[in-house]
């Protein structure tokens, strides 16, 4: 079953909702797994980035593992999470995903009250027995984005716009640029928001005023706007979370892709097989959780080849290139 919890109990709201509920009732008859999974999101699924990947991960669980699935959007407080969990418990849901760091602490706090459920979140620290947090190691993907930017900049100035101060992608980007070419200046700014598009674009304008020609927008709530602005200016970007080459292959040199959807399927399959570990699990290039996206034709083949070789070496040895 695929069920959007947001619309439960709404019957005469609009044609689109009626189609959704009709589709749900059709899917109910085909599900055979004894497990049920649910997804809680602090925003909506239509952001073309992080939340959209979580949604597609849920679809993977439904289609590949034959689980009943449901989701609820705009759940961002402890009270809202508890209300959702009470309802999900009544429906027999036993695997709950919280799509983001904010859910880790809340799941840890509430998990003892829902002993028959297992909780999975991303990038936050957890400690309880029935809670798992999957950490994407963002440092290496930022590092390789920086390596490419350092090799491709014409102005010897590049920039990274991060959403949160704790993001290792930004630190990795700076280090990657500097190890590739120490003469390239790196502007590193944080806007303290995942989705403040106005602030991100103002930060971008400030970077462009300093002659930056390649930008890494490390925030999935504003990366598309930043890339589109760079496209207008004839400048370059490194895509974030998803492969953004479709936004302009002449603009997006490559992307740092987090395969969140695959991690959903992996966690759900491990849960079905009683193999899902509790605690904090880190994933990176080695697990296939992170890859680089398609290269722009603007990236010379020799540069592509060198970066691919460096990534393969990192996957084999765990050592990042320093020259």
UniProtKB/TrEMBL annotation:
It holds the Pfam family Bmp. The keyword Cell membrane applies. It is found in: Cell membrane. GO terms for cellular component: plasma membrane. Keywords: Cell membrane, Lipoprotein, Membrane, Signal. It comes from the Bacteria. It is a lipid-anchor. InterPro entries: BMP_lipoprotein, Peripla_BP_I, PnrA-like. The keyword Lipoprotein applies. Belongs to the BMP lipoprotein family. This is Nucleoside-binding protein. It comes from Alteribacillus bidgolensis.
């Amino acid at each position: 079953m695929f069920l959007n919890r947001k619309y439960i109990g709404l019957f005469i709201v609009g044609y689109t909702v009626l189609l959704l509920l009709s589709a749900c009732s059709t899917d109910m008859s085909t599900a055979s797994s004894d497990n049920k999974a649910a997804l809680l999101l602090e925003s909506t699924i239509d952001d073309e980035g992080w939340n959209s990947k979580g949604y597609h991960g849920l679809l993977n669980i439904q289609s590949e593992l034959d689980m009943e699935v449901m989701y609820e959007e705009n759940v961002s407080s402890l009270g809202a999470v508890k209300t959702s969990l009470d309802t999900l418990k009544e429906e027999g849901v036993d695997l709950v995903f919280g799509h983001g760091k904010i859910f880790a602490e809340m799941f840890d706090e509430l998990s003892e009250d829902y002993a028959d459920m297992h909780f999975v979140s991303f990038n936050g620290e957890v400690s309880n027995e029935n809670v798992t947090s999957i950490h994407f190691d963002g440092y290496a993907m930022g590092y390789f984005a920086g390596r490419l930017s350092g090799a491709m900049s014409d102005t010897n100035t590049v920039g990274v716009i991060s959403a949160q101060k704790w993001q290792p992608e930004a630190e990795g980007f700076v280090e990657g640029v500097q190890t590739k070419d120490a003469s390239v200046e790196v502007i590193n700014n944080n806007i303290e928001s995942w989705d403040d598009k106005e602030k991100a674009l103002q930060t971008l304008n400030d970077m462009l005023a300093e002659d930056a020609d390649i930008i890494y927008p490390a925030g999935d709530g504003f990366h598309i706007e930043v890339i589109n602005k760079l496209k207008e200016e004839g400048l370059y970007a490194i895509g974030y979370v998803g492969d953004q080459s479709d936004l302009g292959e002449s603009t997006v040199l490559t992307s740092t892709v987090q395969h969140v959807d695959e991690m959903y399927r992996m966690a759900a399959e491990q849960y079905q097989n009683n193999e899902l570990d509790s605690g904090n699990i880190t994933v990176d290039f080695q697990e296939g959780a992170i890859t680089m996206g398609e290269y722009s034709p603007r990236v010379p083949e020799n540069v592509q080849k060198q970066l691919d070789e460096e990534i393969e070496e990192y996957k084999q040895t765990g050592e990042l290139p320093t020259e």
